[in-house]
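Key result, reporting period 2: structure in, sequence out.
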C-alpha cells in the first residue's frame, strides 16, 4: 500500500530531515585522517539524541542484512558502495566516505546520504561525487506531480551512465513515512513514461549509487552488510528524502 502524506505529516518529516542534515554536517566536520568509523557513529548518536530524534537504523533487521543493524549510520568507504558498518577502521588520507543516516521524530522518518573525501582528494573522486550529486538532483527534478516513477530513474541513469559510471538497480530508493522503508520502490534506472503516477503527498527517498569503474557488478562482503563494487573501484552514494507537492519536489533532508 502506498500512503500519501498530508501537509502536516510532511512538516513532521521535515523535522526528522533537519536532524539527518545535522548528522551529516557533524560527521563531515569530524571525519579526518585517523578518526574511526565507530567514532563517527558516536558523533551521529549525540546529534540524534540532542535533536530529540531516534535512530531508524539501530536494531533494524531487513532481509538484506545478516544481523540487526549495529549503528546509527552506514559508513561506506571507497569500494564499499552501501551499508558499510561503523567499524574501528580509521580513515586514511583520500578515502571516499558515504554517510547514510535515517532518524524518526514523533514517529516520522527521514533518510539521507552524503558522500565526500577525507583529506586530500583525487580529482577522479571529486568528479564521481559531483556526478552522483547531479544524478540525485536530476531524479529529484523529475519527481513532479503528473510524472511517472520511470521518469525519475530515467533522469538519473541519463546523468550517471551518461558520464560513464556503473549503476545498480537492486538497491534503490523507497517510500518513507511512519516506516523508513515503505512502498513504492524507487528505481535508480527506469523507463520514461512507465510506472507509478507521481501524486502530491507521495514522499520518497531517492538514492542513486555510482560505480567509478563503469561496471554494474557488486557483491556482499563477509560481514553480511557491506555491499561492495564488483571491480573494487570506488563508489559514491547520495540520498535525499523528497516530498512531491503541488508546487513540485521539496527536499526534506536539509538544514
Ligand atoms: N538508506 C539505506 C536504505 O534505504 C539505509 C539502509 S538502513 C540499514 O537502504 F540500517 F539497513 F542500514
Ligand atoms: Co534509504
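The corresponding designed sequence is given below.
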Amino acid at each position: 500500500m502506498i500512503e500519501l502524506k498530508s501537509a502536516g505529516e510532511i512538516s513532521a518529516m521535515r523535522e526528522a530531515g533537519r536532524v539527518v542534515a545535522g548528522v551529516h554536517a557533524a560527521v563531515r566536520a569530524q571525519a579526518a585522517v585517523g578518526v574511526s568509523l565507530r567514532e563517527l557513529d558516536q558523533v551521529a548518536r549525540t546529534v540524534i539524541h540532542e535533536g530529540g530524534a531516534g535512530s531508524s537504523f539501530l536494531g533494524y533487521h531487513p532481509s538484506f542484512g545478516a544481523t540487526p543493524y549495529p549503528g546509527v549510520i552506514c559508513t561506506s568507504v571507497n569500494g564499499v558502495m552501501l551499508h558499510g558498518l561503523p567499524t574501528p577502521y580509521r580513515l586514511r588520507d583520500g578515502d571516499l566516505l558515504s554517510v547514510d543516516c535515517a532518524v524518526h521524530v514523533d514517529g516520522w522518518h527521514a533518510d539521507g546520504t552524503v558522500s565526500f573525501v577525507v583529506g586530500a582528494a583525487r580529482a577522479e573522486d571529486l568528479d564521481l561525487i559531483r556526478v552522483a550529486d547531479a544524478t540525485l538532483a536530476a531524479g529529484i527534478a523529475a519527481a513532479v506531480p503528473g510524472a511517472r516513477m520511470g521518469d525519475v530513474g530515467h533522469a538519473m541513469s541519463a546523468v550517471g551512465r551518461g558520464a560513464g559510471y556503473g549503476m545498480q538497480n537492486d538497491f534503490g530508493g523507497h517510500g518513507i513515512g511512519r516506516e523508513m522503508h515503505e512502498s513504492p520502490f524507487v528505481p535508480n534506472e527506469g523507463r520514461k513514461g512507465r510506472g507509478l503516477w507521481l501524486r502530491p503527498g507521495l514522499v520518497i527517498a531517492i538514492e542513486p549509487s555510482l560505480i567509478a569503474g563503469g561496471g554494474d557488478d557488486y557483491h556482499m562482503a563477509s560481514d553480511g552488510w557491506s555491499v561492495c563494487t564488483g571491480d573494487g573501484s570506488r563508489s559514491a552514494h547520495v540520498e535525499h528524502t523528497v516530498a512531491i507537492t503541488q508546487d513540485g519536489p521539496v527536499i526534506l533532508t536539509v538544514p
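Residues 57, 60, 62, 65, 69, 74, 83, 100, 111, 174, 205, 207, 239 surround MF3 (ligand 1) (CB under 6 Å). The mean pLDDT is 98. This case is discussed further under Risks and Mitigation.
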